[in-house]
Each structure stands twice: as C-alpha cells, then as structure tokens.
Task: structure prediction
Amino acid sequence: MRKYYGGIDLGGSFVKAGLLSAEGEPVSSLIVPASVEKGIPAVKANLREIGNKLIDLAIQNHGDLIGIGVGSPGTIKYPEGIVTGATPNIPGWPGTNISEIFSDFPLKVVADNDANCMGLAEALFGAGIGTSIGFYLTIGTGIGGAIIINGKLHRGASFCAGEFGHTIFVYNGVQCKTGRRGCLEHYVNGSALVSATLELIKLHPESVLAKARELITPKLIFEAFNQGDSVAQKAVAENAAMLGTAIGSAVNLLNPEIVVIGGGMALGGQKYIELIKKAIFAFAFESTTSALRVELAKFGNDAGWIGAACLNIT
Result:
C-alpha cells in the first residue's frame, strides 16, 4: 500500500487540507469553511472531521495515512503543538494544544505555524529544492516568513523566527494591531496596495481601474498591471520597491541562496517578482546577492496544507 501524509491549513475563513505522497505529489484536496464565527469548540470539531476525511481519502486511494500535520496562525510551540502567539483572525485560539485535538487518532499529529509550513513545502518539493538556506515569504493580508536551513525549519529560541511582517519598516509609523508602530506588513500587504491605487486613481481617473473603484482588489490591480495600466503599474512598482528594500535587509542578515515569494500577492506573477528582485539587488550588498535567486512560489494556495503534511516527512 502507498504511504500518504495528511496536511491541514487552518485559516480565519477557510480550512484547506489534502493528501501528499511520499514523493511530494498532491493526491487529493478539499476546502471547507473554518467555522470560526461559531467559536473554538466548533473549530476543533471541524478539524477532527477533516482529519477523519483524510483517513478516508487515504483508504480510497489504496494507501495508509502515516500522519497529519496542521498549519495554524500564531506562534506554535513545537513539537507540542501549543498556540502561544496572538491569532487575531481566530479569537480565543491562543493556549490551544492542537495535537491534543486529535489525541484519540491512531496516528501522529503535529502542528506548526502556517508560514513555516508554506516554506517547508517550497523548500522540500517546490521552488527551493536543492538549496541549503532559503527565506520563504507568504504575502497577502499579512506577511509571514520561514527560514529553512538544510531542509530543516529554523524556528528560533521561542519558536518566533521568520516574523518578517512585524519587523519595523518606518520608525513610529502606522499602528499595527499588535500595538507596535511601523510594521512592514502595513506598508506592503494587499490592503496597502489597494489604498495606494485608490489614491492614484484620484489623480488619474482615466485608469481602467476607476470604474471598479469600490470593488478594487489586489487581483484586479495585478490584472491591470499586466495589461499595462499606468496607475496599476505605478502602484505595483512602489509596492515592490518597498518590499524589495525590506527583503534586502533580510538578505544581508541571512545571506540565503533563495528568496521565495508566495501568498495572495504572488498573483502579480513574474513581472512583480522581477520588480522585487530589482529592489533587493539595489539595496543588499553585492556579496550577499552574488548567489541569490528570487523565485515565485510553486504551490500557490496549496502550499500551506502541503507544507503541513511535510511536517511528518522531515
């Protein structure tokens, strides 16, 4: 029988899950509402139901489920699976022992931070295959990061390594929901891109985006960007320049072989990645970029559950 590894990616709105083969090939996947609005007991029950579905899927695919990994928001004490950091999109989640939710399951269940899982997927089976040190970013509503060295996650002394979105980009800048000021994610996330675009539309009402003013999303902006709209191009270029500048500082610190960019903002595609790369190479030392690659993530929105499944492979 084939061996399969289950992965669950818990988000504030949806839970994505699936089966991964030992060779890193996605076999089957599903997506369901997270049930956060119903409270923590409902979230836990939902996760258990998904775990049972993964067991059934493995049987349907003529194999055994070796283990389940869970990617969750917040700082996760590993390998215990305890949520120790804030989770604004899942109120009441801190303090939860995720592994204990599955204590009666006949297999191993481990948990880690969702951005760590994304990075692990890309390092083992995606854009980072074959690299010894990589910096992996997921950029959307927030920014998460993972540092992977020789195929192993660097979690840090208290499991917080990689919190790139909350590095300070502007001294005494915009207040973050964490209470700090000037956090990077407020300047380069999806909401910041939309806000910058709306300001530019006021000056350039001829933009194709002006008609969709009330419905503008990062996806629409990137579509206009790739079609050559001047407002979208200016907004995306500024976003990429700020993000690349910040990544350049991380490159100086870590000296990675690869930076991989995923998440919702990766919808910008290769043209967006090239703008980010240009800024990284402009602001980081030549010596730290001499062996650097900057790549688009391979797995897109499936990276979270694929990486969670990888927790039982490494």
